Amino acid sequence: MILPGDHDDPPPAPALVIFTDGTRPWWLRLLRPGFRHVLIALARPGHWVVINPLSHRATVDLVPGVDGPALAAWFRAQGHTVVETVTRRPPRREAPWAPFTCVEVVKRLLGLHARWVLTPHALYQAVQPARRSSGGAAPPAMSPAPDPDHRCQTQNISTRICGARMRSTITSG
Length: 173
Known about the structure:
The structure is a single chain. By secondary structure, the chain is an alpha+beta fold. The protein has one domain. Helices cover 20% and strands 20% of the residues. A five-stranded antiparallel beta sheet has the order 4-3-2-1-5, sandwiched between helices. A hairpin with a 4-residue loop joins strand 3 and strand 4.
């Protein structure tokens, strides 16, 4: 529901859309290999917020002090497909109804109202830079503002991601 005073949408921000493989639950095998699950990382000042909407729960993890290209490279090193994009200001109307899936969660977080984007591969096609309808604008820099209180070394991304409860291989649930 859109409330009358709810017109202060946040400005577009960097996002990483991460596509993974997996065969659990069994029906994921019906989807295209490599595009059976999707999760998202959103840039916020000093950290990234990684939201992983699984079938039985959702996880929300913080990854402090890492820039976007390094985080994207880490996910790619795990064998995942990553699209660097930006969040959008959604239209000022309710989003189309759709089943509550990982794709729908990521679409809502991106501000994407696309009724027929129902599978991870369809979302992949919708967020490709050449297909975006954002007027061809380049995405903003992929690094969140540094957090002055954070003292971690940026070379140690894997440790910080794993320390944030993420497994080295993200599997769909």
